[in-house]
Write a structure and sequence with these properties.
Layout (H helix, E strand, L loop, with lengths): L1 E13 L4 E14 L5 E6 L11 H15 L7 H11 L4 H19 L3 H4 L8 E2 L2 E3 L4 H13 L4 E5 L4 H14 L5 E5 L6 H10 L6 E3 L5 H8 L6 E3 L6 H10 L4 E5 H4 L2 H14 L2 E5 L5 H12 L6 E3 L12 E3 L7 E2 L9 E3 L1 H4 L11
Parallel strand pairs: 5-6, 6-7, 7-8, 8-9, 9-10, 10-11, 11-12
Antiparallel strand pairs: 1-2, 2-3, 4-14, 13-15
Helix pairs in contact: 1-2, 1-3, 2-3, 6-7, 7-8, 9-11
Length: 363
């Protein structure tokens, strides 16, 4: 197990500027098998203030789960996950990196790219979206221009300040979109229900997806009943039960399915299938990290049918360094899951340095 300090190219703010970040702290896991195969997993919360997750929690949780996991067959992903749930209820973000490494090994053992174990590769590439940090209107437009230069035609812009400022941002950014460009307004929970209803009814002519306007799911439902724009649930989607409830409540038209937040590929696949059955579109991605976690997420997106596969983001596009060999890349605003067996992204162990801990099975 390694810790990896990831510096962002530029400082990044969200939730109306309330949350500010300059670095991320990622945990990389290597899982070795008796047959000589090696699986890799990654867990990278977006700091410690964004969600109930932090890097130290992942490392402590991995140490807690290691005696349970080591010695199990990693190809039996559901069996491994049930064993983790029994040993450590909850704490899904801790289990995600272990689960990812198991899926990497399962796909390698089968001689298939991961997407073929997650439902099968679909035709075409996965569309990518930029992630535009919070700022003034001019700062948002400048960041969008930088993203356009990298091929992005789909932008997720962070808003959420005061209503008057956000109305100006929404109208200006919407008018700035060219033919074929798509735009999401991501509020990251910073509005109260009253603010959300006021802002969205003031801009009711702008039919762009508005993501996670309020802090809680109950507040989100209050907004849903009062506005006409398509809404997305992101941070409020943590478990399969959350997805089932959102379907029953007709709470949203889009969900943000982040692999690390929901506990790994195993629960993410289940949530994906519920959303597909309900006809709800998805951004399939991860919370943060290197090309390892991003490539695993693109595999899940690649196995998600169109048009329900909406977009994915590559966190490592925001990093100064990405110590991973292989994996996905931004190809003019799209990405394609690798054809090689497994995830197809391998961390550079020389760049990782000395491991923080090594766990071995009892013989």
């Amino acid at each position: 197990m390694w810790g990896l300090d990831l510096a962002l190219k530029r400082p990044y703010s969200l939730s109306g500027g309330r949350l500010h970040f300059e670095r991320l702290d990622s945990t990389i896991l290597r899982l070795d098998t008796d047959e000589g195969l090696v699986g890799w997993g990654e867990g990278c919360p977006w700091g410690s203030t964004y969600l109930p997750a932090f890097a130290g929690g992942i490392r402590a949780g991995v140490a807690e789960l290691a005696p349970t996991v080591l010695g199990l067959d990693p190809r039996r992903t559901d069996v491994v996950y049930r064993a983790m749930d029994l040993a450590l209820p909850g704490h899904g973000y801790v289990k995600s990196a272990i689960d990812m490494a198991c899926w990497d090994l399962a796909a390698q053992a089968a001689g298939l790219p991961l997407c073929d174990l997650l439902g099968g590769r679909t035709d075409g590439s996965v569309r990518l979206h930029s992630s535009i940090p919070s700022g003034t209107v001019d700062e948002l437009l400048a960041e969008i221009d930088l993203a356009r230069a990298e091929g992005y035609t789909f932008h997720s812009a962070k808003i959420g300040a005061d209503v008057e400022t956000d109305v100006e941002r929404m109208r200006t950014l919407d008018a700035a979109m060219g033919p074929g460009e798509e735009l999401t307004f991501d509020v990251n929970r910073s509005w109260t229900p009253a603010e959300a209803i006021t802002a969205l009814n003031t801009t009711r002519e702008i039919l762009r997806v508005v993501e996670q306007p309020c802090q809680t799911y109950g507040q989100h439902l209050a907004v849903r009943a009062a506005v006409g724009q398509p809404l997305a649930i992101d941070e409020s989607l943590v478990t399969v039960d959350d997805m089932v409830r959102a379907v029953g409540d007709r709470a949203c038209e889009v969900v943000g399915l982040k692999v690390g937040r929901v506990g790994g590929i195993t629960p993410a696949r289940r949530i994906r299938d519920v959303a597909v059955a309900a006809g709800i579109r998805m951004n399939v991605e991860d919370t943060g990290g290197t090309a390892l976690s991003a490539t695993a997420a693109v595999h899940l997106a690649q196995a998600t049918p169109e048009p329900l596969r909406r977009a994915t983001w590559l966190c490592f596009d925001h990093l100064t360094d990405n110590p991973v060999e292989g994996g996905v890349a931004n190809d003019g605003g799209t990405a394609t899951a690798p054809d090689s067996p497994g995830i197809g992204a391998v961390p550079d162990q020389a760049a990782l340095g000395q491991p923080l801990a090594i766990f071995e099975a009892n013989r």
